[in-house]
Amino acid sequence: MWPYKLYYQLKTTAQNIREHRATVLLSLAAVGFTLLLLASYLLLLSNLQSVGERLGRELQIMLYLDKGLSGQARARVEEAVRAGKEVESVEYCSPRKALRSLEEAMGEAARVLKGLPENPLPGSLEVRLKGPYRNMETIEKIASRLSGIEGVADVEYGGGWMKRFFAFIRILRWLALSLGLLLLFASVIVISSTLTLGFYSRKEEIEILRLVGATESYIRFPFFLESLLQGIGGAALALALLWVLYQIFRANMGAAWGLFAGWGQLHFLSVPATILLLSLGAMVGVVSSVLTFSRFSAK
User: Fold this and answer.
1) What is the pTM of this model?
2) What is the pLDDT of residues 164-173, one digit of tens each?
């Protein structure tokens, strides 16, 4: 008996979609473009998070030494820095080398440095930390400790702008959550409206089914399946459109992104993120059907 029931429900679902194909296609497109906005936001956020993680791994501490520090005193500073268990390597950069690097970075504008009576740049130590200690909290503590070593004039580790960058990412996460809820709600309304049309078009048939003893679950299953297909189909459409836009952006702006991200590669949504988006589409379908059933039953 159950194979016939399943056949009927699948046939009814196909009939509903066929009879209202224009409305269903419009609903599918609306859900797809709505979820495309959310997927695009998630793609941007995931790539910015990757940039932040890579920059965090490459963080190092710069110790600027007192001017006129003797070689023996510098050796003592290096020895004190290397004594820390967190330190992976220490490299000395002389004032001459620092000036040469600055001239190379400035290019033609470096001629303004030619008239300087003396090299204004101090010697410095580039301190690279071991992997487990390359995070902002640990780096701040280590930088504070190293600043107290005699002979160290200043400490720099990019903490200010890195904090602002990660704060910006946290704000994006909250915006993604708010935007996602708003867009998912809009998708629910679109699919629910489509299902309501289907209910009204088959109102007489539904009443007959009730009279002959059909259960509510038996009647509602085709509409539930239709809404589920619309939600998952909209999410799949959003992913397909996002993939096309991603390829276009990478072909035209990939070099610019690599320069911004320190030659990091732009990447598409991960498999878990893709599954999440499809699951959100399915959830939109389920919520839409429940909302529609409650409205229809109330009439």
Assistant:
1) 0.59
2) 777 777 787 7
